[in-house]
C-alpha cells in the first residue's frame, strides 16, 4: 500500500486565527485564490511522496533518534510574500523572522537523513513558510499584490517548535485531509 506522506510542524491556534484574518484580506482583493483551510496550516519540513509501509517504517526508525536529540525552539511567524514571478505569483505564504535559522537547520538535518534512506526523493530544500493560499489565475492580480505588500510585515504570532510529525495526505472533494502517522517530540529547550 502507498501512502502520500510529508514531514510537518503544526502551528498553534493563535497563529491560525491571525492567518485567517489575513486570508480575509486576500479574499477581499477578489483575486482567484484558493485559501488553505486554517486547520491544515503547517510548515512543510519535507515532502516525501508516495511511500510503501516499509518505507514509512524506515523513515520513522531513522528520524526518531535524530529528532529526539533536537532542541525545541520558539519562532515568530511574520510577513507575507509569494512564490512565482511578480506577474503570475502561484502561492501566498506567511514567513518566519525570529527563529528562521533554527528552522532552516532543522529542515536541512531532516532532509539529509531522509535523502540517505530515500535517495530517489530529490526535492530541493524547503524555505520555512506557511502556505496560506494558492493563486489560480491572474484575475485581479494587481489588487492581490497590493494586499500582499500591505500585509508584508504582519505579525501572526509565536510558536513553540516541539515536535515534527509524519503525516499522510488524502485528497478528497473537499480538499486535502491530513492524518498524523508518527509524532517525533523534540528535546525541551528548558531542560538541562
How many DSSP helices? 4
- Under the CATH scheme, the architecture is Alpha-Beta Complex
How far apart are the first and last residues' alpha carbons, in Å? 42 Å
Radius of gyration: 17 Å
What's the CATH class, please?
Alpha Beta
The stretches of 5 or more residues where confidence is low (pLDDT under 50) are: none
Overall pLDDT level: 88
Q: How much of the polypeptide forms β-strand, as a percent range?
A: 35-45%
The figure for the number of domains is 1
The counted number of beta strands is 9
The helix content is 25-40%
Output the strand order for the largest sheet. 2-6-5-4-7
The largest β sheet comes out as: 5 strands, antiparallel
H/E topology pattern: EHEEHEEHEHEEE
CATH topology: Cyclic Phosphodiesterase, Chain: A
Q: Shape, please? A: globular
Structural class: alpha+beta
At the fourth CATH level, what is the homologous superfamily?
A: Cyclic phosphodiesterase
Amino acid at each position: 500500500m502507498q501512502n502520500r506522506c510529508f514531514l510537518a510542524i503544526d502551528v498553534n491556534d493563535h497563529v491560525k486565527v491571525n492567518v485567517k484574518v489575513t486570508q480575509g484580506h486576500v479574499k477581499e482583493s477578489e483575486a482567484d485564490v484558493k485559501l488553505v483551510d486554517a486547520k491544515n496550516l503547517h510548515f512543510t519540513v519535507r515532502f516525501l511522496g508516495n511511500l510503501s509501509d516499509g518505507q514509512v517504517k524506515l523513515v520513522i526508525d531513522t528520524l526518531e533518534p535524530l529528532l529526539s536529540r533536537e532542541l525545541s525552539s520558539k519562532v515568530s511567524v511574520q510577513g507575507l510574500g509569494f512564490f512565482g514571478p511578480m506577474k503570475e505569483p502561484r502561492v501566498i505564504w506567511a514567513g518566519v523572522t525570529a527563529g528562521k535559522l533554527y528552522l532552516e537547520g532543522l529542515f536541512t538535518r531532516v532532509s539529509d537523513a531522509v535523502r540517505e534512506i530515500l535517495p530517489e526523493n530529490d526535492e530541493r530544500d524547503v524555505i520555512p513558510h506557511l502556505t496560506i493560499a494558492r493563486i489560480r489565475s491572474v484575475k485581479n492580480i494587481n489588487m492581490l499584490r497590493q494586499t500582499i505588500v500591505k500585509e508584508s510585515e504582519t505579525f501572526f504570532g509565536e510558536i513553540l517548535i516541539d515536535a515534527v510529525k509524519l503525516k499522510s495526505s488524502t485528497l478528497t472533494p473537499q480538499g486535502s485531509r491530513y492524518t498524523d502517522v508518527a509524532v517525533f517530540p523534540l528535546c525541551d529547550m528548558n531542560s538541562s
